[in-house]
Specification:
By secondary structure, the protein is of the alpha/beta class. The chain has one domain: Rossmann fold, CATH 3.40.50. Helices cover 28% and strands 30% of the residues. A five-stranded mixed beta sheet has the order 1-2-9-8-5. Strands 3-4 form a two-stranded antiparallel sheet. The longest helix has 13 residues. It is globular and about 60 Å long.
Length: 193
């Protein structure tokens, strides 16, 4: 998979995104429900993520995890464990969680899927445009479950699918920062909008 790494800054120690989600998207008409139909050209990572999230192609999990392992993981120093970004939508299988677990297996580190929690019933951030609107909508919606039982402080790598303004990631990292077992916070997203 080709990537175009981009560094992202926020309330974390280091962060990267693998590639832009789409190269281009053109309206080609409307469907029977009056919704626009698009001809979208995606990056390699964007297409794999689209197939995983919207076509339930679970065969994309391993290639996406491998891409993170090859291109993003080496940038971070001494990752102690991996945490998937808390999901916005309830699904039987969570794409980001599956990718985070596969990455953890490749890296030989634990993946804590229940550490980062998001309160149910929040506003969908897809319908908000500015970072300020998004920050206001998700204020205090993330929490951190204190599940580490051994002594010490650990570097965590948070995995997300799509990075836009950084509002969700900053809220999630603020919750993680409150946990005294966490040292450095690293973030890696698959695509940016």
């Amino acid at each position: 998979m080709n990537v175009n790494l981009k560094e992202i800054a926020g309330n974390w120690n280091k962060g990267v995104v693998l590639d832009k989600h789409s190269k281009s998207s053109v309206v080609t008409g409307q469907n029977e429900y009056g919704h626009n139909v698009y001809d979208t050209i995606r990056t390699d990572v964007g297409e794999a993520l689209f197939q995983l999230k919207y076509r339930s192609d679970w065969n994309q999990v391993q290639p996406l995890a491998q891409c993170l392992y090859d291109n993003a993981y080496p940038i971070f120093d001494k990752v102690g464990f991996i945490v998937p970004m808390a999901a916005s939508n309830v699904r039987a299988r969570q794409p980001v969680t599956e990718v985070a677990q596969a990455l953890a297996q490749l890296a030989g580190v634990p993946c804590f899927t229940t550490m980062l929690l998001k309160a149910a019933g929040g506003v969908s951030l897809k319908n908000l445009n500015t970072k300020e609107e998004k920050v206001a909508a998700i204020a205090d919606s993330f929490s951190c479950e204190e599940i580490i039982e051994n002594e010490g402080r650990w570097n965590v790598l948070v995995i997300d699918d799509l990075y836009h303004t950084g509002a969700s990631m900053e809220a999630a990292c603020a919750a993680l920062r409150s946990y005294n077992k966490i040292n450095n916070i690293y973030v890696a997203a698959l695509t940016w909008r």
